[in-house]
Amino acid sequence: MSSDTVIRAEGLGKKYIIGHQSADRPNTFRDAISQNVRNFLRGAGEMARGKAIVAGDELEEFWALKDVNFEIKRGEVVGIIGRNGAGKSTLLKVLSRITEPSDGRVEIKGRVASLLEVGTGFHPELSGRENIFLNGAILGMTRAEIARKFDEIVDFSGVEKFLDTPVKRYSSGMYVRLAFAVAAHLEPEILVVDEVLAVGDAEFQKKCLGKMQDVAGQGRTVLFVSHNMGAIKSLCKAGILMKHGAVAHTGEIQGVLDAYSKQLARSSTTTGNMDNLHVERLVVDFNGVPKIQIDLGGLTVPAGTYEVRAFLTAVSGTAVGIGSVGGFGSKGLEISQNQRNVGLVLEMPNLAHDIYLVTIEVLDVQTHKVVSRLNLDEIDFAPPPLAGENHALDASWGLGFNRLPLSLELRD
Amino acid sequence: MTQKETMTSSLDQSAPTTPGQERVLVLEAGRTERNYWSDLWAYRELFAILAWRDIAVQYKQTVIGVAWAVIRPLLTMVIFTVVFGTLAKLPTEGTAPYPVMVMAGMLPWFLFSTILSQAANSLVSNSNLIGKVYFPRLIVPTASSIVALVDFLVTFVLLLGLMVVLGFYPSWQILFLPFFVILAVLAALGPALILASLNVRYRDFRFIVPFIVQFGMYVSPVGFASSVVPENLRLIYSINPAVGVIDGFRWCLLGGQANLYWPGFALSLVVVAFFLWLGIRTFRATEKTFADLF
To answer: Which residue of A65, A120, A138, A220 to mutate against B (max B Cβ within 10 Å)?
Structure first.
C-alpha cells in the first residue's frame, strides 16, 4: 500500500442469504401444515449444521456488494452516492468492521470511527450527562477525552438546562442535537458517516455541516453517504457512485454526480408501483414552463369522487410543493369504474437543478383516505439556463431561483 | 506499529500519527484477528461504562429499587430452609445453622445463574449497538456479568448479617473467598458465551436458558449440602461445575465445617476450564457474523 493510501478495497464482496415467501400461498389447511412441517425440518437441519435460520420458503443468495475496488488517500473527503439498495450502507458496515466481507479484502491504515446512526446506545433512562459519556465511549472516545470536550459538547447541543433529565423526557429534536453533538466531537483518523444529517431541523443541519466541514478541513479522511446532493457537493472533492453493489463511477465529485443524474434520468420512468398504478410514460419537459408529464395506467378504484394530488419533494427531504385536482375546496373529480389511465402535467416553474421525488396520491373525497399511491423516485430536473446566463443554478444555492427584485437609487 | 502504540493512539486520538508507522488492518473473510486480546484491552473503558450502565439502569423505575437485591435471596433462603431443613430434615454441614448453610450455597448459585442468564441474553438486548459500531463483542457478555457481582455483594452483606444474628462466625478459610468468586464468574462465563452466540442465531435459547437456570438450582447443592449425595456418586455429581463452586464457597464461609471433596473439586475445575475454552472459541468463531443476524 503506498504511503498516502489509507483505505484500499480489492474485489470486495458481501453476500447475504435472503428468503422469499413462495409465490403460491397455502390454500388449504393441509397445505399450510405441510409447509410448516417442511420449514421446521429445514430449520432443524440448518441448526444441526450450525447455519443461520432464514425466514421464507425459497432461499436466494444476494450479493449486497460484488467486486468493489477503490482506493482512498489520506485526508480525502469522499462522498458515496447511489440509489437505495445500491450497497452504500453495506460498504460502510464492512469498512467499520461491523460485518465481515464474504469475498475480497480491505486494507485500512489508521483508526476508524463510524457514525452510522446518531445516538447509538443512548439509554432512555439515563440523563443527558450520563448519555454523553456512554455514547462517547461507544463511539470510541476515552473518558478523559469526553471530560475534556464535555463543555464544548453541551454548548454545541444547546440542551444545558436538561443535562440531568433522563433523555426519555427529551423532545426528539433535543435528543438528536445531543446525539450529534457527541458525534461531532469525535476525532478519529478516518471517519465513516452514514446518512445522519437527514435528522434535525434545518438550522441544526447547517451547524452539523459546518462542523463536518471543519473535520474535513483538519486533514482527516472522511467517507460520507448522503442523499443530500448539496451537502455532498460542498463537502466532498471525490466521490464513489454505487450501483447494484458495485462501483459504477469514481473520481472527482462533479463527474460522479453527473453520472448519478444520468443513471437516475434513465431509470425514473420505470420505478414505483403500488396497487396496479404504474407509470406508462414520463417526460420532463423544459419548453416554456418546465413541467413533468406523467401518463399513469392501471388505476383501479371504484367509481366515485376523488382528489388527485402530486407532492413534490427535493431529494434532501425538503417539501417543495403540492399540486391538486379536485381538492382545495373544489367538489372533487369524478372517476368512473372503467377509467384506467390518467394523464398528469405538473408544472415546476423556477426550480433549481436537483433531484426530486414526486408522490402521486388518489384520495377518496368522502372518507378522506388514500386509495392509491405511487412514488416516482429521483427525477433529475435540469432546467436550461435563463436567457443571458451560461448555466442554470443548482440546489446548493437553494431550491428555487426566483430573482428577487432589488432597486437602487443613486443620489448626489 | 506496535501494539503499545495502538493503545496510546486510541487513548489520545488527537495525537497525530506519523505515516508509514501505522498498523495496517486487513479485513478478509474468515480472517482471525491478530491483535484480539490487545484490542480487548484497548476497549476496557467501554467495558467499564457498559457495566456501569447496566448497574445504573438495573433498578430504575422500580418502587423499592435495590431492596429487590435483598428480598430475592432472603425469601429464597427462608423457603429452602423450611422445605429442605425443617420439612425434609436434611442434614446441614457440621454445626453450621441451616439458614447460613443455604445462604452460603445460594451466594455462588445466584452469581452463577444471574451471569448465565444476563450474559446469554446480552447480545440480543444490545443488538442496536452491535449493528452500528465495532468493538470486540466479548465486552458485551462480560460487562453484563458485572451487574451480577453487585447483587452478589448485597447478598454477601446479608449473609454476614445472618451470621451475626445466628452467632456463627467464619474462620481463616474466608480469605480464599475471592478465588472462589472468580471461579464462579469463570464457571458461568464459559457456558454463557456459548449460549449467547447460539442465542443470536436461534432465539430458541431465550426460552431454554431460564429452564436451565431453574433446573440447575435443583440439581446443584443449593438448598441442601452436597454431603447428602451418596459417596460413590459424588465424582459424577461434580461434573456439574456449580457443584465445585458451591462446595468451595461453603468451605470458605462455614469455617471448615464443610469438607471439600477434592477429587470432585478438581473435576469441577477441569469442567470449568473446558467450558471456558469452548465458550471463547465458539464466541470468537461466530462474533463477526452477529451483525448480520439481527
So the answer is: A138
